[in-house]
Amino acid sequence: MTTMDRGVRGRDRVAKAVLYTILSISLLAVVGPFVWMALSSFKPEGEIRSVPPTWWPETFTLENFRDLFSRLDFPLFFFNSALVALAVTVGNLLFCSLVGYALAKLRYPGKRVLFLAVLGMLMVPGMVTFVPQFVLVSNMGLTNTYAGLILPFLVGPFGVFLMRQFLQSIPDDLIEAARVDGAGEFRIFWRVVLPLCRPALATLGILTFLASWNNFLWPLVVATTEDKYTLPVALALYSIGQNRTDFGLLLAGAVVVVLPVLIVFLLLQRHFMRGIATTGLK
Q1: Which SUPFAM superfamilies has this protein been placed in (predicted)?
Q2: DSSP per-residue string spanning 232-250
Q3: Could you tell me the pTM of the whole model?
Q4: Helix/strand/coil for 240
């Protein structure tokens, strides 16, 4: 081995060590708050507020979780969140796939203009359309209803863009062969195209479910009675008072809110990673 080879290998080892150090620090920065949240949900209120903060609970307690299930109508709020998140997710999977298929595989006048409109909608902040969206829902009489919580989010530009990019990677010959066999466009979409879209559908499903499950501002404005509150709204309203915030209740609720999203991700992570890796290759 020459001196130059040893120098190159030495620099590679140093570069890898620096890279692993940066990645480890980044991992701690991301995971650290979640670990502290989970551990602190088992601490009494006084220990949570202690300075400096502690990592491992000095006094282990389940009082925060008992308060969560006794002070809140937890089954109702959980049902509301699950219903809204699942309906929004299913709607996005269906409608975004349909629109993405039309933009990727069908030929018709104005298709490029429609796709540019989708890209333009991606650049518009959600706060810009929030008030007009609420006025429209209110004029339709959908405030404080499940429909008002669900309908505005059944399809979105990001989902359309994601599915369109993935569908472009499906060979046109496969679709043409189905047309020659006499299959209609919807049958081609349902029986041929959709089964090939599992990675993209898993990616879109996880991202949509996460956004809908954690959505706070829209349910806070649209839901005016407790029987329509979602879990994040109920948790915030019950744990934050006029003069005092119940951090124990807030952290216990945060742990419960995170669990469904974590379970969904663990079940679909293989398809999620494939969808991220393959979407937009073409």
Answers
A1: MetI-like (SSF161098)
A2: HHHHHHHHB-SS-B-HHHH
A3: 0.80
A4: strand
